[in-house]
Amino acid sequence: DIQMTQSPSSVSASVGDRVTITCRASQGIDTWLAWYQQKPGKAPNLLIYAASNLQSGVPSRFSGSGSETDFTLTINSLQPEDFATYYCQQANSSPYTFGQGTKLEIK
Amino acid sequence: EVQLVESGGGLVQPGGSLRLSCAASGFTFSTYWMYWVRQAPGKGLVWVSCINSDGTNTRYADSVKGRLTISRDNAKSTLYLQMNSLRVEDTAVYYCVRRAVGPSHYFAYWGQGTLVTVSS
Questions:
Q1: What is the DSSP string of A69-103?
Q2: CB 3.0-4.6 Å disulfide test: which of A93, B2, B30, B111 passes with B6?
């Protein structure tokens, strides 16, 4: 199974900041990677697919990059609604594993 | 508009059974792979199972293999998860998920989730 490791587990930031979250795969997955945002009590929301493609309706301040084993999610100019938990997920092979999550908190 | 509505969750004793359903609408159900993803209270997301469009190909996480069975009824646009021999560690919110357009396993549409609690 492919293990997905996110860092950091939590991060504090202020409105207007730029934040970067990283995700590492235990083996190469090309660009078969997605990023999700989840707010408390809600289902996750797909933000980025294929490592760098923005899902329809997602603000352009979100961006993704990387390939094979190392990936990043960047959020520019943080907005109040961005404070949530973020998960990466590999779509390369079953089981389609998630990272453990990164909680983005208001400083 | 894509809608996924789960039902069937509840409280069950260890060793018991439960069947979850997911009613789909707003898209051609019979053409999409479908998935179950779960989330234990306060924990992260865990992929559980998936099924191809005509129900001939199913996959499971090792932790549920042999106990949970995914199926679908394309005539009723409904996805199922039969849960047998339930364990305390199966306690979670179970989400029904539809993949994104195209040949990928990205999870684009999610239901609101249904809570399964396994406890004596």
A1: TEEEEEE-S--GGG-SEEEEEE-SSSS--B---EE
A2: B111
Report the SS3 class of residue A17: coil
**C-alpha–C-alpha distance, residues A25 and A27, integer Å:** 5
**d(Cα B75, Cα A59) in Å, to the nearest integer?**
37
pLDDT digits (tens, 9 = 90+) for B55-81: 999 999 999 999 999 999 999 999 999
- Rounded to the nearest angstrom, the minimum Cα separation between A3 and chain B is 12
Residue A47 neighbours by CB under 8 Å, 6+ apart: A34, A35, A36, A37, A54, A55, A58, A62, A64, A73, A86
Neighbour count for residue B5 (Cβ, 10 Å): 14
B20-62 pLDDT, tens digit each = 999 999 999 999 999 999 999 999 999 999 999 999 999 999 9
What DSSP designation does A16 have? Answer: T
**Integer Cα distance of A6 and A66 in angstroms:** 14
Q: Using a CB–CB cutoff of 8 Å, tell me whether A96 touches chain B.
A: yes
Element (DSSP H or E) covering residue B50 = strand B45-51
Query: Is A87 within 8 Å of chain B by CB?
Result: yes
Match 């932790």 to its residue by tokens: B63
